[in-house]
Amino acid sequence: MENNLGLLLTKRAFLTPDTEAYVGSHSAERLTFAGLDARCNRFANALVANGIEKGERVGLLLMNSAEFMEAYFALAKIGAVVVPLNWRLVADELEFILKNSGTTRLIFDDEFVDTVADLHARGDKTDVTQWLQVNSAGEAAHFAQAYADFRDAGSTEEPPMGACDEDILYIMYTSGTTGLPKGVVHTHSTAIWAILTISASAYYQEGDSYLAALPMFHVGALTPLAVNVYRGVTSVVMRAFEPGLAWELIDREGIQTGLMVPAMLNFMLQVEGFTERFDFSQLRWIMTGAAPVPVSLTQAYTDMGINILQVYGLTESCGPACLMDSESALARPESTGKSFFHTEVRVVNEAGEDCAPGEPGEVLVGGKHIMREYWNNPEATAETIKDGWLYTGDVATMDAQGFVSIQDRIKDMIISGGENVYPAEIEGVLMTHPKISEAAVIGLASEKWGESPLAIVVRSDDTLDVAEVMEFCRGKLAGYKRPQSVEFVSEIPRNPSGKILKRLLREQFPGPAPI
Q1: How far is CA 449 from CA 129, 151, 473, 486, 513, in A?
Q2: Is the N end or the C end of the chain the one with fewer CB atoms within 10 Å?
Q3: pLDDT tens column, 209-236
Q4: Fold (topology level) of 414-508
């Protein structure tokens, strides 16, 4: 049997046609699986009539929406390649991705018409020849077609299957925390295996509703949305995250599951009077990851009867790597859990040998859901995938029971006086201070030590000073690990998935260290 991700929607629409597939948070739009599939087929057939070819790249510069979901499954069915675009990027950054991927068609929202007009004016600096605008007024920019008009000209008949198995499904560009973004290539096969491993590892039930709060251009949203189709779960989609609205939707739609980064979960706890205003008794679990999860956060949700499923994953693994429930997280606060069901995780030394329990090494992820390659980047591919294993660049330990504890990125490691210092360990200590809301640590060049840790801190209380931060770390960290300097900032730069952009912090604080 040939596997095509788009056909998951076809099958789901056949099995449970009247179950709601999509509920929009900022509109009255509600679509059953049959309705979503029909719109998907219309768009697919319209593209086929317009001459789209197998493997042709199509960019999606869209907010979370039904149009994003239907375009994703439509393009999958006919064998085109989806290029999800981060709408926070500026025109220069988008131009690089469009040109690098060879994207020929672009679907975009009203909100981004000025940016897209800039891209259109650049002529052959991109390869885009068709511009489709999603808008509420029904009118498009002079260079674009109205998406709805184009889609609705197509038939609702099932289009011919244009791809399967090892054919490319999408190219998702990494956030570029350390340099230019790389295009992560996932196939129909890798994406479906990611769906299977999440479905086998998390606690879904028939009739569930799922709160989708992350942007769909991120693997942490795109893969779970496909899981929801596979399992017949209703996706309640937030166009953009709002903490108060999240509680309102959980109450109004009777939501049982979802996924958010830790910062989102923290913002939700700050909503005034949410425990009295909203009923969340049916909410069983929320998956979270992409950044360290404070024990206090897990405990707060556990006290409300909500299981926090802590996940460690990567774009390159199509999402899954490790998973851990609240009970394990509270017992092992330093850990990120054990490998997902259809996933293998190893920790190896520089020789590629498995480390002894507790010995730090690089995390390797194996499974049929890891990426095929980096798009047009064989050197980076060869560095990252070796003998079928994905080399993550993350440093971790694994205990005898298989629990993995991420320590840091190899590239972020600080070498101070010949000792390895992992910023994440220091950040974990800093985040336990009641007056600190965010913390990041980078290494500064030091004439004496080679490198010294700099703590970059966001205060929740303006009375916090440098001396208090330094004293707080004393007794909690070895001398060579303690920050040798502290800087206070109003916010710490993060990418859309919540990861700290250390390269921006290094630009902002170039050093040298005071000692």
Answers
A1: 55, 62, 19, 17, 9
A2: N
A3: 999 999 999 999 999 999 999 999 999 9
A4: GMP Synthetase; Chain A, domain 3 (3.30.300)
